[in-house]
Amino acid sequence: MDKNDTFKQKVRSELDGLQSMIHEQKKLLTSFTSSSINNKTPDPISVLPESVQSLVRILPVNSNHVSPTSTDQVLLMLTDSFSKMASALTDKNVESKADWLKFSGDHKKFRSWYLALVTQLSIAPWTELYDSFKNDVVSMTTNTTLNGKLYSKLILALEGLALQHVVSQKHLRANGLLVLQDLVHAYKPKNIPEVIAAKTTEFWGSMKRSPTESLDAYYNRFQELLDDLVEADEPISTKSAIRHFLFTLGPEFESIQK
After folding, report:
1. pTM for this structure?
2. Three-state helix/strand/coil letters over the chain
3. pLDDT digits (tens, 9 = 90+) for 229-250
């Protein structure tokens, strides 16, 4: 984004310089056409920069020289073109062109992918699809254009089995919110007793920070598993989760544990 802004500023500066140059050349043309040198009408093109002269000389004319009137029209045409270029580079509230995080259908990575996507929707121009009260995506919208754009972005973000799953269902086409609801239904961990039991055993039994794992990475892994257990019949309390987290950080945090 910073590079893009710098580029736009440089182009605007160059366009301003070109417009000023054209204005000065028009003044010179006016002064040349109001007088004659040795009873001969000067060539108005000769006062133009070489790059502009080459453009003017390739235009079809009926005489050896381009008349001041036709040259004036060329300059007006160039001025108009530069103005259009400048207006196209005006600052607008547009989203970053960076690609959204990819998701290939790995159930273990769905939660982090979905949270990243919700974060993306919480900023312009997607805020209409974000429910700030629930910190989640809205369930429906009347903005079909934005919903269709969301569908396009999701198609580009999906790959592998997840992409095949979506494109094979015609009723999901052009409906980004419906695609998200379908993905949540397909990939979000279900409240299945066997699954919950396995995750509970993993949480209390083998959940531990490895010596080479950063605190941030371990916290993310710990939080993902804890989120999965929210759907359990007896979810883990915040107090128990904090205590368990501290006691699984490793021996170097023994003073905090005590």
Report:
1. 0.45
2. CHHHHHHHHHHHHHHHHHHHHHHHHHHHHHHHHCCCECCECCCHHHHCCHHHHHHHHCCCCCCCCCCHHHHHHHHHHHHHHHHHHHHHCCCCCCCCCCCCCCECCCHHHHHHHHHHHHHHHCCCCCHHHEECCCCEECCCCCCHHHHHHHHHHHHHHECHHHHHHHHCCHHHCCCHHHHHHHHHHHHCCCCCHHHHHHHHHHHHHHCCCCCCCCHHHHHHHHHHHHHHHHHCCCCCCHHHHHHHHHHCCCHHHHHHHC
3. 876 777 888 999 999 999 999 8
